[in-house]
Structures are given as C-alpha cells and as structure tokens.
Backbone:
C-alpha cells in the first residue's frame, strides 16, 4: 500500500515537472494577439509572423484557432464514431443467431452501454461542435470564437472523457459499465450482485461528467460568439440558419447539461459515499429518471437541431432556390427548443406516474410534430420546382429528410400513451431513435463533410466513392432500422444479448435480426469507403483552385464561408506558398460533383431538373 | 478576417494551458473520488496552476501568483470544510486518528494539502520574483 502511494506520488511529481518543463520550453513563442482584451499589442512580433504557429504536434496541442479546434473536434468524432461503430458491429454479429455464441451477455451489455454513450456524447455533440467551430465564426464574420482558450479547454476535456468512459474495457481488474446509456437507478447505484458496483461504472460516470462540462463550455462560447462577435453586416435579421440552430442548441445545452452533471454527481455520491438520492428509502429511483430525462430529451434536440440546420443550409445550394419559408424554419427551431423541455416524462409513461400528468406530457410531445413538420414541408417545398443537383451532400440531405419522416412519425406513435405502453422497451423504440441519430445526425455529418470538403482540405473528394458511400449507407440504414421497427411490433425487447425464447415467433425474429445485421454491414462498408475517400482525396488529390466548386455564385448563394475560402486562396497564391496545380485536367474532373460541368459525356453530372 | 483575409492564419493562436486544465480536472476528479491522495493533490495543483497560468496569459492579471494563492486558499477552505464536517471538533490528533478510518477526512485533507502547496508557491513567488515585468 505504502509503495503504491510512493509510486503514485513519484508519478504525479514527474508529470508536474514535465508540465512545468513543457510550459517553460514553449514560453519562447508565448505571445498573443490581444484576444481577451487588456493584453499587449502584437507590434513587436510582427517581424516574424510566418513563424508564429508552432509546427508539428505542438501546434495541435496548443492551438486556440477555431478552425484548428474544429479540425480536432472532427478528427476526434470520426475516431469515436469508428470505435462506437466497431462496438455495434460486434453486437450485431452476435445477434445473427438467437443464442449467445460470439460474446458473453456481460460483454454485450458493456458494448451496448458504451456504444450508446460513445455515439451520443463522444461522437454526436463533438461532430456538431466541429462544424460549428470551423464555420460559425466564418459565416457570421467573426475573427474567432469569443473565448478561444475556453474553446480549446472544451475540446481537450473530451479525450480524457473518452478514456474514462472506455476504461472498463482495457484497464485490468475493471469491468465495463453494463447500466445502459440511461443509467437507471437502482442498477446504476451499484445495487445487486453484478459488476455494476465496480469502479468501471464510476470512471464511466466521471468521463460522462467531463463531456458534459465540455459541452457546456462550448455552448457558452457559441452563445457569446453569435451574440457579440458578429460582423456589422450580419444582423439578427440576416443571421444564417445554421447559426440559428447552433444558438438554439447551445441554449438547450446550457439548461440541460449542467443538470446531467449534477445528477451524475448525485449518482456518484450514492455509489461511493452512502447518500440516498436515488435509493428507495431516499429520493427514489424514479427521481433519477426525472432528472435524467429532463436532460435526456433536450439532448435529442441538441443532436437534431444542428443537423436540421445543415439541411436548411445545404439543401438550397443544390436546389437552386433560397430556403422556402426561412422565418418559419427559424421559428420552428425555436419552438422545438422550448417544447423540448416539456416532454421528458413521455419516456416514463410505463412507470405508473399520475395519468393526468401523463396526458399532458403526451399532448406536448404530440405538439412537437408541428414544428418538425414545418421543417419537413419547407425542405420539400425548397426542392419543389428547383434545379436539383444530386451531388453527394445533396443525396445525403434528401436521404436525411426521408429518414426523418420515418423517424419522426414513429415518434408520434410512441408519444401516444396507449401505443407506447405496448411498444415501450422494444426494438421499435431503438429503430425510431436510430432513424433520428443515424438517419439524421449521421447522414448530415456526411453531408457536411462532403459539402465543405474543399474548404477543409483545399481538395475535392472522389465523387463515385461518395455516391457508393451514400447508397450503401442509405440502403443499410433502411435494412437495419426498419427491421428494428418490425422487431418491435413482434415484441422483441431491446438490450437483450440473446433471443432464444421458449415461446414466441423466434423464426421471424431471427430473420429480421439477420436483415438488421446485413444492413449494419452495408453501413460499415460504406463508412470504410468514406474514410478511404476522405484520406486518399486529402493526401493525394490534386489541389483545387476553384473558389466556387459548387457553382454557388450562379444561384446567388455564395455565402460568407466560401468568400473567406476564396480570399484564402488568393492570399495563398499571392504568397506563393500554395502548391502549384500541375494537373489542371484532374482537378477539373474532381471539381465536378455538382460544380463546373467540364465533361459533357458524364451523365452523372448532368444537372437534373424538376422543372416541368 | 474581413479586412485582412488570410492573415488570421499567421497570427499566434496558441496557448499551452488549455490542455493542462483539461488534464488537471479529470486527474483531480479521479484522485478525490477514489481517495488516491497523490493523484488528488497532483491533479488539483495542475488544475489551479493552469488556471492561474491561463488567466495571466490572457492578460486579465499581470502575474499569476496572487491568483494561484487565492485558488489555493479556496481549496484549503473547501477541503477543511469537508474534513471537519466528519469530525466533532478540530484537533490535530482527531484529524490524524480519522485519517485511518474515514475516507472523507482523507479526501478533505488531500484537498487541504493541495491548497497549502498552491498557497505556498503563489505566496512565495509573489515575493521572491524580483524581475520587473
């Protein structure tokens, strides 16, 4: 025991000494623009402006530039998406047959819990932050985020969060949390004989807490940036739709995530220090459900609204028309934001709460269908009579709308108490919310990555691979999640590692699980193609000099971030530091996913029009 | 951005502190939650030290030492409150006796120790530092 303490002390001492050494070493370039006000000027540094960003790894460890941090968020989110995806592929393979043949039920439960938490907290929120970090300041004409250093802190809290959340899998002696992502008491309090009393759950809760702190810091930053850092010509009246959704989302985070943090601390205290917040004889296990879902339902919209903003942003670019009913899309965003705090108990219809309270929550939940439908109809109307160009980002937008219709309408059914009592805790619920989180958030992540690929990389992606990616993902999504809806109708409970039941329709359940697994593999193949496309196009693709690869000027939608991109290209060329384009032909070929049509014979690039 | 396109690429946009704040917080959390005294003390020191550093770097204060000492003082108060809440009254003997049996006292004392170190370093540097700024 004493030797352990000494070892830990030495370890911590070495870490602190290392930190001090690192800080003193980087002190040499420690000079800044007066970001926070009150700092010194930059006159004395102007002579060596070219050297100001340190090179290599140190640059990425120390950056506070919103674009760099956006890239870090994006890289992190792609890595976590891969990890979460790998977890679910193991689970889906296990579900190919009714018995537990591949992995144990305990490992299945651990993977299930981590898959949910990884995708929602380590992928969902960060990938939105990636887009928002990179583009909101550019779109609203800000120099940077309002608090650049806070921005960096918010990002750097995430990797330790991921390590803690996954710690149960790789730290010897620990078991992964098997609580489900909802962490319902009394299981999560450590009651019972399983592994739920172990430190793996504590570490997971701490990691979750860190990601919550990170999201809250990011949200404060976005709110401050959008309120006070806008350019003079960017008013509330002409603020773009993506910034509106980020602003609304940040408001939701600000009210929802601190509550999650508090509830997690209460849970940790219950687990480790003998408090009774969620004990039957204390605050009751139902208190956890109320607190969790007061956060959890807004979380759904935290993950939905920015992707919806991306649709509203990207869809008009390839429809040749402005967004139909812009104001009403903004109003619907705000309405969803407000209503999202009044629906949490629809997750608890089957807990035996007062039927009068239940009915009021049903009414508000059903009411959310109205602003959601406003969005859908506005998107469809934007495309109506438009000059639709089926580029990869546009395909993902259209796919998202169809997914959202299925995911949204199944949600309306679930909001109705009688239906919910039948379908509660079945695969129907899993299918429903995956149509939103994969079908909307996942799809719009890909749409955003393709749409802004030229800005991130200065290159263009390979359009054939991108279309393979879309169709595999789209078909796979329908296979997987529609099969889940049907499984729910058959009464298949969620979160089960096996379905070798002595009664019930095992054969159709097996067949539907196999369809779902097939779909999951299609999505996985599509994702591998996407990653390949992304890395290869970035590293080997010819430089794209075209300042307007999507021909946005023609339709008068050449927005601020593209103007910034154009100025950057001009500056780079003027500096002579940009790479020369030695392969003009290849570059034009690559630039034509909806952009310049240089190859008359290429049918896939012909503009499709719905004019009639 | 608007007036001088591309120039933002050349500005110094670096700070070494955010990484360490983000590292200090989880280390401190783990240390305090599990009662690992060296981890708790080291994590808290990293956390408050980095806060003092980043505030100074941002230009809100000229030197970090007062803030470091102040944060150390806050830790002392917090840790002492936690430890004393478990004891009938303050006496060194009672604290030492409780260290072996009461986990909350261990955690409280580790927070106090971190606070005292921060207070000491901040206070000493405040007076030792001779160089004009």
Residues:
């Amino acid at each position: 025991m004493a030797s352990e303490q000494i070892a830990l002390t030495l370890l911590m001492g070495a870490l602190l000494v290392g930190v001090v050494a690192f800080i003193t070493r980087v002190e040499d370039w420690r000079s800044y623009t007066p970001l926070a006000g009150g700092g010194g000027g930059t006159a004395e540094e102007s002579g060596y402006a070219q050297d100001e960003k340190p090179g290599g790894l140190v640059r990425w460890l120390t950056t506070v530039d919103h674009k760099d941090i956006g890239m870090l968020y994006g890289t992190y989110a792609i890595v976590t998406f891969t990890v979460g995806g790998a977890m679910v592929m193991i689970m889906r393979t296990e579900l190919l047959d009714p018995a537990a043949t591949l992995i144990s039920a305990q490992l299945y439960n651990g993977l299930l819990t981590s898959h949910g938490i990884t995708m929602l907290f380590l992928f969902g929120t960060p990938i939105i932050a990636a887009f928002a970090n990179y583009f909101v300041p550019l779109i609203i004409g800000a120099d940077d985020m309002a608090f650049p250093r806070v921005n960096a802190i918010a990002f750097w809290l995430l990797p330790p969060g991921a390590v803690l959340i996954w710690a149960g899998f790789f730290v010897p002696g620990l078991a992964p949390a098997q609580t489900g992502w909802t962490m319902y008491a009394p299981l999560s309090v450590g009651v019972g004989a399983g592994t739920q009393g172990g430190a793996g759950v504590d570490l997971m809760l701490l990691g979750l807490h860190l990601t919550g702190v990170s999201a809250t810091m990011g949200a404060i930053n976005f709110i401050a940036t959008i309120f006070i850092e806008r350019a003079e010509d960017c008013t509330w009246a002409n603020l773009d739709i993506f910034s509106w959704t980020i602003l609304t989302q940040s408001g939701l985070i600000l009210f929802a995530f601190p509550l999650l943090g508090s509830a997690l601390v209460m849970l940790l205290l219950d687990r480790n220090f003998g408090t009774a917040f969620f004990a039957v004889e204390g605050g009751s296990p139902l208190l956890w459900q109320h607190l969790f879902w007061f956060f959890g339902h807004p979380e759904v919209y935290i993950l939905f609204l920015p992707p919806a903003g991306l649709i509203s942003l990207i869809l008009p670019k390839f429809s040749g028309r402005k967004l139909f009913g812009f104001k009403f899309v903004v109003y619907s965003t705000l309405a969803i934001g407000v209503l999202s705090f009044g629906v949490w108990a629809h997750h608890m219809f089957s807990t035996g709460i007062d039927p009068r309270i239940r009915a009021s929550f049903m009414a508000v939940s059903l009411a959310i269908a109205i602003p959601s439908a406003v969005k859908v109809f506005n998107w469809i109307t934007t495309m109506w009579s438009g000059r639709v160009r089926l580029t990869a980002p546009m395909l993902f937008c259209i796919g998202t709308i169809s997914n959202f219709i299925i995911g949204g309408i199944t949600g309306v059914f679930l909001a109705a108490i009688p239906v919910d009592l039948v379908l509660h805790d079945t695969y129907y619920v899993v299918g429903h919310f995956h149509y939103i989180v994969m079908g909307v958030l996942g799809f719009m992540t890909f749409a955003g990555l393709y749409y802004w690929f030229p800005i991130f990389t200065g290159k263009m992606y390979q359009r054939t691979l991108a279309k393979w990616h879309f169709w595999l993902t789209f078909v796979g999504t329908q296979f997987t999640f529609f099969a889940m809806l049907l499984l729910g109708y058959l009464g298949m409970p969620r979160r089960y590692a096996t379905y070798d039941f002595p009664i019930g329709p095992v054969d159709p359940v097996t067949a539907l699980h196999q369809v779902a697994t097939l779909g999951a593999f299609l999505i996985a193949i599509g994702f591998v193609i996407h990653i390949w496309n992304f890395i290869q196009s970035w590293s080997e693709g010819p430089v794209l000099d075209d300042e307007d690869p999507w021909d946005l000027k023609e339709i008068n939608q050449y927005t601020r971030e593209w103007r910034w991109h154009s100025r950057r290209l001009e500056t780079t060329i003027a500096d002579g530091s940009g790479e020369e384009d030695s392969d003009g032909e290849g570059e034009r070929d690559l630039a034509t996913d909806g952009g310049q049509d240089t190859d008359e014979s290429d049918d896939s690039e012909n503009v499709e029009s719905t004019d009639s | 951005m608007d007036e001088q396109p591309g120039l933002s690429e050349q500005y110094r946009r670096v700070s070494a502190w955010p990484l360490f704040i983000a590292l200090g917080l989880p280390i401190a959390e783990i240390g305090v939650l599990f009662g690992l005294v060296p981890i708790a003390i080291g994590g808290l020191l990293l956390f408050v030290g980095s806060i003092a550093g980043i505030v100074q770097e941002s230009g809100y204060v000229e030197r970090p030492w007062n803030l470091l000492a102040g944060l150390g003082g806050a830790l002392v108060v917090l840790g002492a409150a936690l430890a004393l809440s478990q004891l009938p009254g303050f006496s060194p003997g009672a604290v030492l006796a409780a260290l072996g049996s009461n986990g909350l006292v261990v955690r409280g004392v580790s927070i106090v120790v971190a606070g005292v170190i921060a207070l000491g370093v901040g206070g000493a540097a405040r007076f030792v530092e001779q160089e004009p700024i």
In short: Chain B has one domain: 16-128. Chain B has five helices and no strands.
